[in-house]
């Protein structure tokens, strides 16, 4: 399993202390001493934003002009000195929280699906979804071909083929209507004679 990475920004002393302990840490560390150095690393795609956090004195300098950076993956250490064990604990908590948040979000078409909060969003608009609606979206998103009602019925509802298909049709219809009403999008879930497709 790949270790998560902690990027220290303009905190060379902390980086040097943890560098001495790097074999005992559950994460890898990098050091960025300036905005230029960080900018070059971002420009050259040397930072995997899905697997790292940043430790900095403030987020103002760090967030400036970096659209890939998110406040949730920045740990602010504004009070120095700090006890080393407390710093390592804070880093580990931040890594767990960020990984949880990152894994909970999926980009589907131009939308962000947040599995934890059961929402789908686009352009600052958000729609609350039911658990079944999330299951429908996730299932359809996994397949590149239209899925027939009986497949949805057996895979999502675990119904046998003899049961009524109205349950599936009603759920998909309501989901499509909600998306149309909030996002004015009739093509998120496409309905065809071959089934449903995202």
Describe the structure.
The chain is an alpha/beta fold and 198 residues long. The chain folds into two domains: 5-103, Rossmann fold (3-Layer(aba) Sandwich); 106-197, Orthogonal Bundle (Arc Repressor Mutant, subunit A). Helix content is 41%, strand content 20%. The protein contains seven helices and ten strands. The strands form three sheets. A four-stranded parallel β-sheet has the order 2-1-3-4. Strands 5-6-7-8 form a four-stranded antiparallel β-sheet. Strand 1, helix 1 and strand 2 (28-32) form a beta-alpha-beta unit. The mean pLDDT is 87.
Question: Helix coverage percent of residues?
Answer: 40-55%
Q: Give a quick account of the main beta sheet: strands, pairing sense, barrel closure.
A: 4 strands, parallel
Instruction: Flag low-confidence runs.
Output: none
Q: How many β-strands, per DSSP?
A: 10
Brief summary:
This protein is α/β, with parallel strands linked by helices and about 200 residues long. Helices cover about 40% and strands about 20% of the residues. Helix 1 links the parallel strand 1 (about 5-10) and strand 2 (about 30).
Topology:
Elements: E1 5-9, H1 12-20, E2 28-32, H2 35-43, E3 52-56, H3 59-63, E4 74-76, H4 84-103, E5 105-108, E6 111-114, E7 119-122, E8 125-128, H5 131-142, H6 149-157, H7 166-183, E9 190-192, E10 195-197
